[in-house]
Inverse folding.
C-alpha cells in the first residue's frame, strides 16, 4: 500500500464519516463567536477549534489559526493547551504533505510536555509521529512509536486513543502486506470500538477486516464483514459509504461475479464524486480496470485505466505502462479486425513500434525514478540534520535564557535582603535608641533633682517616660513579629470565627487611646460574617491599622471600621478623617526599602514596621492590602481575605 493510501485510511480514521456534514456548521458557529469574544483565553480556544475543523478542507488556514492559539497559550504559560494545539497543527501540516514540519510540531510536544499532566497529548504526539513514519514507509520506526503511544494511552485509560492506535498498527501491517497481523489489530480495534459504542469507527474497522480476509483468500468471511460494516454505517446515519462498495466490488470480482462487481464499483465512483474523494475514485477505477481486463473488454479497461492514471500520476510505473500499452494494442487490433484492408505487415510494424515506445518510456521512467529517489534521499537526510541542529541550538538558547532569569531572580532577592538588613539596622540604631535615651534622661532628672520640680512637672515627666516606654515596647513587639515572619517561625493557624467579635476586642483595646484625642471609634460589621483565618494575625493587622488611624487623626475626629462580603472574598475598611497621605508617600507604603518620617497629630512617632507586618500577614492569607487617601480629607486602608472553608 502506498503512502497516499495510508493517508486516506488515516484521514477516514481521524475525521469520522458523520463529521463531514456538520463541519461547515461548526466552523460558521466558531467564526460568529469569535466576532463577539474579547477574552484572550476564550479567543485562543476558538482558534484552537478552528485549527482542528479546518484540517480537512483548508489545512493551511487551520495551521494559521493554530499558530494564533499557540501564541496566546505561550504567553499564558499553559503547557497542556500548547501541547494540544501543537498536535492539531502537526496534523494540518501532515495533510498539506509537509511531513518534516509536522514532525517538528509533534517532537516539540515531547520537549515541552510535563508528565503526568500532558500524558494524553504525549500519547497522541507519539501516535502522530508513527503515522508520519508509516507514510515515509519507515515501518519499524512507525511500530516503535505506536508502542510508546499505546503504553501512554493505557496509563491514562483513554479508550478512544487506544482504538486509534490499534487501527494505525493495522494499517501499517496492511501496508507491509502482513495481512495476518493487520487482521489481528483491526479485530482488537473493532472490539474496543464496539465497547465504547463508536458506531462509525466500528463500521470502518469491519471494512478493514473484510479487506484482510479477502487478501487471505477468505472471500465468504470478507462478505460477512462488509455487510456488517454497511449495517453499522446505516446505524451511524452515514449512507455514502463508498469504500464499502469498493470492497464489495473486489469481493464479487474475486468470486468472478463480474456483473455485480461492476455495479458496486460504478456506484462507489458516484458516491466518491459526491464526497469529493479522488482517492476512492482512483481505487474504484483501478478495480474496474481489472474487471474489464478479465472480461477482455479492452476498450472499457483502457478507459478506466486512463481515468485511474489521470487521478494519480505517481502510479504510472513500469508495470502500469506495460498494461496501458498492451490495452492500446489490443484495442488497435480490434479496430484492425474490422478493417480488412489493413494487411498483416502494417499490423506487425505498428505492434513493434508500440513495443519500442513502451521500452523507451519504461527505461526513461526508471532512470527518472532513480534520480528522484537519490535527490529525495539526500534532501531528506540534509533536512533531518538541519532540524536536529536547530533543535540543539534552541535547547542551548533556552538553557542560557533560564540561567539569566535565575541570576536576575537571585539579584532581586539579594537586594530585598539588603533592604531588610538596612531597615533593621536603622530601627535598632535610631528608632530603638531614641526612646531609651529619653527614658534615661528624664529618669535621671527625676532621681537627681526631684525636689526642684513641681508636682505638675513631675507628672508630665512621668507621662513622657511612660510614652517613650510604650513606644519602645510597640517597636520591640513589631520587631519580634517581623523577625518571626521572615524566619518562618511564626505559626499560621487558621480557624473559623465571627469577625465582629474580633473587631470588638481590638476596638475595646484601643478605646483609651482614641478617648485621649476624643476620637469617635465606630465599627460596622455585617452580622454573622465569619472568616477562616489566623486570629492572632488578623488581630495584629486591625490593631496596627486602627492605631495608625488614631495617630494621624485630629482631636474630635472619627474612625470607621467596616467589613462586607463581596463575591468570593471579605473586604475590610479602616477609614479615618485624618490628615491623609500624599501621592508620593502612598507609593512608599508597604516597602521596606522606603522610610516615611511623618509624625502623628500629637507628634506621635511610628515604628516603621506596622504596615509592613500588615502586608506580610494579609498576603499570608492570600489577600491584598492597599490605601486610598487625599491630603486633608483622611485615609482608607483596605484589605481582603479570600473566602475559604475549614
Amino acid at each position: 500500500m502506498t503512502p497516499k493510501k495510508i493517508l486516506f485510511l488515516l484521514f477516514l480514521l481521524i475525521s469520522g464519516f458523520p463529521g463531514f456534514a456538520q463541519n461547515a456548521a461548526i466552523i460558521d458557529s466558531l467564526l460568529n463567536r469569535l466576532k463577539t469574544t474579547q477574552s484572550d483565553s476564550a479567543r485562543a480556544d476558538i482558534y484552537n477549534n478552528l485549527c482542528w475543523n479546518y484540517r480537512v478542507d483548508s489545512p493551511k488556514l487551520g495551521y494559521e489559526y493554530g499558530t494564533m492559539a499557540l501564541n496566546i497559550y505561550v504567553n499564558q504559560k499553559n503547557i497542556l493547551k500548547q501541547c494540544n494545539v501543537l498536535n492539531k497543527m502537526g496534523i494540518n501540516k501532515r495533510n498539506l504533505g509537509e511531513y518534516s514540519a509536522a514532525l517538528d510540531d509533534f517532537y516539540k510536544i515531547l520537549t515541552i510536555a510535563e508528565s503526568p499532566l500532558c500524558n494524553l497529548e504525549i500519547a497522541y504526539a507519539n501516535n502522530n509521529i508513527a503515522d508520519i513514519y508509516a507514510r515515509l514507509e519507515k515501518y519499524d520506526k512507525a511500530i516503535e512509536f505506536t508502542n510508546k503511544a499505546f503504553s501512554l494511552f493505557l496509563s491514562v485509560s483513554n479508550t478512544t486513543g487506544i482504538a486509534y492506535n490499534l487501527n494505525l498498527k493495522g494499517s501499517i501491517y496492511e501496508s507491509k502486506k502482513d495481512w495476518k497481523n493487520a487482521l489481528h489489530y483491526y479485530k482488537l480495534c473493532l472490539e474496543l470500538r464496539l465497547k465504547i459504542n463508536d458506531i462509525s469507527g466500528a463500521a470502518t474497522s469491519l471494512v478493514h477486516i473484510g479487506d484482510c480476509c479477502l487478501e487471505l483468500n477468505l472471500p465468504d468471511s470478507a462478505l460477512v464483514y462488509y455487510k456488517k460494516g454497511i449495517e453499522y454505517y446505516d446505524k451511524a446515519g452515514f449512507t455514502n459509504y463508498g469504500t464499502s462498495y469498493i470492497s464489495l466490488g473486489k469481493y464479487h470480482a474475486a468470486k468472478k461475479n463480474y456483473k455485480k462487481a461492476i455495479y458496486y464499483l460504478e456506484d462507489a465512483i458516484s458516491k466518491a464524486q459526491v464526497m469529493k474523494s479522488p482517492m476512492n475514485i482512483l481505487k474504484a477505477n483501478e478495480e474496474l480496470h481489472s474487471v474489464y481486463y478479465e472480461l477482455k473488454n479492452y476498450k472499457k479497461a483502457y478507459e478506466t485505466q486512463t481515468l485511474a492514471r489521470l487521478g494519480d500520476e505517481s502510479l504510472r510505473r513500469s508495470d502500469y505502462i506495460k498494461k496501458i500499452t498492451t490495452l492500446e494494442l489490443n484495442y488497435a487490433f480490434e479496430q484492425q479486425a474490422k478493417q480488412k484492408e489493413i494487411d498483416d505487415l502494417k499490423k506487425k510494424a505498428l505492434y513493434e513500434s508500440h513495443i519500442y515506445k513502451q521500452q523507451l518510456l519504461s527505461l526513461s521512467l526508471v532512470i527518472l525514478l532513480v534520480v528522484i529517489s537519490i535527490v529525495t534521499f539526500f534532501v531528506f537526510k540534509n533536512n533531518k540534520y538541519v532540524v536536529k541542529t536547530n533543535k540543539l541550538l534552541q535547547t542551548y538558547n533556552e538553557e542560557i535564557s533560564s540561567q539569566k532569569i535565575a541570576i536576575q531572580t537571585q539579584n532581586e532577592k539579594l537586594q530585598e535582603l539588603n533592604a531588610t538588613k538596612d531597615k533593621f539596622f536603622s530601627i535598632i540604631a535610631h528608632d530603638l535608641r531614641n526612646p531609651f535615651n529619653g527614658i534615661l534622661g528624664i529618669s535621671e532628672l527625676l532621681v537627681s533633682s526631684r525636689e526642684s520640680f513641681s508636682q505638675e512637672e513631675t507628672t508630665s515627666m512621668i507621662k513622657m517616660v511612660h510614652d517613650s516606654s510604650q513606644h519602645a515596647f510597640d517597636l520591640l513587639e513589631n520587631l519580634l513579629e517581623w523577625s518571626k515572619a521572615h524566619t518562618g517561625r511564626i505559626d499560621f493557624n487558621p480557624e473559623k470565627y465571627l469577625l465582629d467579635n474580633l473587631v470588638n476586642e481590638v476596638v475595646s483595646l484601643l478605646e483609651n487611646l482614641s478617648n485621649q484625642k476624643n476620637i469617635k471609634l465606630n465599627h460596622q460589621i455585617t452580622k454573622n460574617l465569619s472568616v477562616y483565618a489566623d486570629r492572632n494575625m488578623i488581630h495584629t493587622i486591625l490593631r496596627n491599622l486602627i492605631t495608625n488611624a488614631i495617630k494621624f487623626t485630629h482631636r474630635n475626629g472619627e474612625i470607621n471600621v467596616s467589613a462586607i462580603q463581596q463575591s468570593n472574598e471579605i473586604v475590610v475598611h479602616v477609614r479615618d478623617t485624618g490628615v491623609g497621605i500624599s501621592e508620593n508617600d502612598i507609593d512608599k507604603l508597604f516597602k521596606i526599602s522606603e522610610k516615611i518620617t511623618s509624625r502623628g497629630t500629637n507628634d506621635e512617632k511610628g515604628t516603621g514596621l506596622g504596615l509592613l507586618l500588615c502586608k506580610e500577614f494579609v498576603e499570608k492569607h492570600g489577600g491584598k492590602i492597599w490605601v486610598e487617601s487625599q491630603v486633608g480629607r483622611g485615609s482608607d486602608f483596605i484589605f481582603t481575605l479570600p473566602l475559604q472553608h475549614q
User: Anything to note?
Assistant: The domain at 491-642 is CATH 3.30.565.10 (Heat Shock Protein 90). The beta strands are 494-498, 520-525, 530-534, 558-566, 569-576, 625-630, 634-642. Residues 414 and 420 are 10 Å apart (CA to CA). The radius of gyration is 42 Å.
